[in-house]
# Entry
Amino acid sequence: MDKHNPEPNEHKSLSLEEDFPEGMPPARARLFIISTPIGNLKDITLRALETLKTVDFIICEDTRVTSILLHHYEIKKELISFNAQSESNKISFVLNRIKNGESCGLVSDAGTPTISDPGVRLVSTAIKEGIKIEPVPGASAVITALSIAGLPTDSFVFEGFIPQKKGRQTKLKQLADEERTIVLYESTYRIEKLLIELNQYLPDRFVVVTRELTKKFEETWRGKPSELLTNFSSKITKGEFVVVISPKNWNE
# Structure
């Protein structure tokens, strides 16, 4: 490609015509993985809005949460609850509709679907059955937290929610030897417990704790686990947390 006269990227749309092998679904029949805002409703792409308006139906974790987003952008669509409890029972139902020519959008309550959220089994099964999967990228709490942490990002490991009980200490001991930046999710109910454990197993690490990213009451704390515990002991913390931990032997 001539760098002085680059070819424009092809515009993808639901009307895009493609050739499918015999027996494969038509071009319109596909599963869209649509990223939604992690907090601020303005943090959604134009392509995501276009796709939400055009698909035949949307599967989501909580219809009440997704309804807020759709109502904000004046989008009316059929919503189907698709969470960890119902996923296995609804996969065939969803994929059969796609095979019959419908387009489906998968969204999570916030951010990029399937990242510590339901949908992985749906995607893997769709792939096995020859259904077209199309990502519509956007907000991600993992990447957003990393971007403001000030820690190495050339190599990192995302552990999601570490085990609540069985295996939790083993995982923390493993993380103590991790030489990459670590990203964790944690809930309101266990964030203080996690900091106590980090102070026990990773006391010398630099930790960045973010709360309610992109929302009105977004907050970020930075410091050693012991320093963070001082701040948290006098606070009532609500919301979802992303915790970023410096690599082993890292120096500012």
Observations:
- Residues 1-21 have pLDDT under 50 and may be disordered.
